[in-house]
Write a structure and sequence with these properties.
This protein is 63% helix and 0% strand. It is built from four helices and no strands. It is rod-shaped, with a radius of gyration of 26 Å.
């Protein structure tokens, strides 16, 4: 579902540069604005799994860890 985004209080110089850039690309200022946002956000990748895992290891480094095989054995023994 398309939405609207209103950007207020832009400098006149910035608006002028946007219009010039849009004209260079054969687009309206609004279409150029959409393209700039699309490109900026497309290049911003999601969080890297390895970085997230390293962060989690740092957060839990001081906590006591129970090996999974111990947890599995306890679970089986409860049956």
């Amino acid at each position: 579902m398309p939405g609207n985004l209103h950007v207020r209080n832009l400098d006149d110089d910035l608006i002028s540069k946007l219009k010039i850039r849009a004209a260079r690309h054969g687009r309206s200022a609004e279409a150029e604005h959409r393209e700039i946002l699309r490109q900026a956000l497309a290049s911003e990748g999601g969080p890297d799994f390895e970085e997230l895992a390293a962060d989690l290891r740092k957060l839990t480094a001081s906590r006591k860890q129970t090996p999974s095989e111990v947890l599995l054995r306890e679970s089986r023994d409860e049956r």
